[in-house]
């Protein structure tokens, strides 16, 4: 299933040390243009979604709003996660390729 491939790609990126999580750390990665892709849980607060939508828009970083916090956490082997950033271009492309096919994910460039 495509959904699993996107989350598997996220897990691979995490094991390679190419994923950062947490509000402030992800914001720092976006500001430094280190982040290649930002993923936000669809059950994140409206305020969190708006903050990252605006920040990623101004820095031209792809943003995916989808999955839920349990799925994101499980994919990276941690407890619930609301926001993640992929810092490697190759992993970001791999995840976006699988996410682009999914209908329940909102994708913003």
UniProtKB/TrEMBL annotation:
Keyword entries, A-Z: Ribonucleoprotein, Ribosomal protein
The Ribosomal protein eL8/eL30/eS12/Gadd45 domain, residue ranges: 8-93
SUPFAM superfamilies per record: L30e-like
Pfam families reported for this sequence: Ribosomal_L7Ae (PF01248)
Gene3D superfamilies: 3.30.1330.30
Protein's recorded name: YlxQ family RNA-binding protein
Protein species of origin: Paenibacillus lacisoli
Taxonomic lineage from the root: Bacteria, Bacillati, Bacillota, Bacilli, Bacillales
């Amino acid at each position: 299933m495509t959904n699993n491939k996107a989350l598997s790609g996220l897990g691979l990126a995490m094991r390679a040390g190419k994923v950062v999580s947490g509000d402030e750390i992800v914001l720092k990665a976006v500001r430094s243009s280190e982040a290649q892709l930002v993923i936000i849980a669809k059950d994140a607060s409206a305020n969190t979604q708006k903050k990252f939508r605006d920040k990623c828009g101004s820095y031209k970083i792809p943003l995916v709003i989808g999955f839920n916090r349990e799925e994101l956490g499980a994919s990276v082997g941690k407890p619930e996660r609301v926001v993640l950033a992929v810092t490697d271009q190759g992993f970001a492309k791999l995840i976006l390729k699988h996410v682009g096919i999914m209908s329940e994910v909102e994708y913003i460039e």
